[in-house]
Amino acid sequence: MACTNDECKNTRKILRNGEVAPPKEDPVPLPELPCEKSDAYFVLRDGAAGVFLAANTFPKSRETRAPLVEELYRFRDRLPEKLRYLADAPQQDPEGNKTLVRFSRKTKQQYVASEKEGKATGWSAFFIDGKWTEAKK
């Protein structure tokens, strides 16, 4: 899908379901966050399934992971305006577990959820009407 203005070269992908893909943000380099499996550092990217951290040396190093809310808060000044609300999300659940940014394909929205030792705890929070609202399974 291309812009109808002759001077504009902007294009967007068309998703499998026929919808036009939302505009993507430019990658945000975070040299302070080293990768665990390589000597690269993480870059915050905006993909079809929400934001994620990827190695800056991709495709050489294919390390990716979900960002922690505390990491987004730490680098809040570098985040694009449309992602800043994620830095204001709860950084821990009521039990003190760190929260990660996740993406719901069902509702097509980003939310935060907590994990303990790599397993989901069932706690999550959604950004509704300008504020974070907790949801417990």
How does this model look, in words?
It is a single chain. 7% of the residues lie in helices and 38% in strands. It has 2 helices and 8 strands; from the N terminus they run ββββααββββ. The chain has helices at 69-74, 84-87; strands at residues 28-34, 41-47, 50-55, 64-65, 99-104, 109-116, 119-128, 131-136. The mean pLDDT is 92. The strands form 2 sheets. The protein has a 4-stranded antiparallel beta sheet, with no helix packed on it. With 137 residues, the chain is mostly beta strands. It has one domain (28-136): N-terminal domain of TfIIb (Single Sheet).
> How many independent structural domains?
1
Mind describing the biggest β-sheet? 4 strands, antiparallel
Spatial strand arrangement across the major sheet: 1-2-3-4
Percent of residues in helical segments?
A: under 10%
For the terminal residues, how far apart are their CA atoms?
A: 40 Å
**Name of the level-1 CATH class:** Mainly Beta
Query: Helix and strand string, N-terminal first?
Result: EEEEHHEEEE
Class from secondary-structure proportions: mainly beta
- Determine the strand fraction and express it as a percent band: 35-45%
What is the CA-based Rg, rounded? 16 Å
CATH architectural arrangement:
Single Sheet
Q: Count the helices. How many?
A: 2
Compute the number of strand runs: 8
- What would the principal axes of the Cα set say about the shape? globular
GO molecular function: DNA binding; DNA topoisomerase type I (single strand cut, ATP-independent) activity
Pfam families: Zn_Ribbon_Topo
Keywords: DNA-binding, Isomerase, Topoisomerase
Protein name: Omega-protein
